[in-house]
Design brief:
alpha+beta, eight-stranded mixed sheet, 8 strands, globular
Amino acid sequence: MTFDFADNICLENNRSLLRPLQHTDAEGLLAAACSDPDLMRYSTALINSPQLLAQYIRTALDEKAQGIRYPFLVIDKTSGRYAGCTSYASIVPADERLEIGWTWLGLPYHRTGLNRNNKFLMLEYAFETLGADRVELRTDERNTRSRNAIMGIGATYEGCLRHYKIAFDGFRRNTVYYSILREEWASSVRGRLAAGDVSV
């Protein structure tokens, strides 16, 4: 597996456009970031003000420059609006694995099929273009909505890492891990996502 952080990765279908996040995206993302006071309840960072969102984007782009994370802007093509963000991270080419995470969408885009389309594009690119053997997903143990969405894709639960991260409010959160393997993508997950046979 190869991954070049200098690549301009753009992923698109008839519903979603994922393109590299830029500093100038802050203004367009603000409405989505402020759409729900509980949006980042289980996160390690808040985004619900111009200053907090700008800091979030700075951190994401700093991590991209360090080769830690590749952040995307999510555009909802039905409205043309900026809907949220997602990322590739924990990229280990030698082991043919990476993570999909740091995903958030504004409240108007929840349960609309946008996240399903995003995940399809990211998984398709990871397995079929990058050559990944394993894609990881993780979330706060308390985040039932996220856990249900991950399991709805067809990911396999692998366990819980206790006190793995400190949330923005100081809470020591447990992190649950899931994964999808290349053969699972090919045999079942791809078809389910493409057919819309999931609720994400």
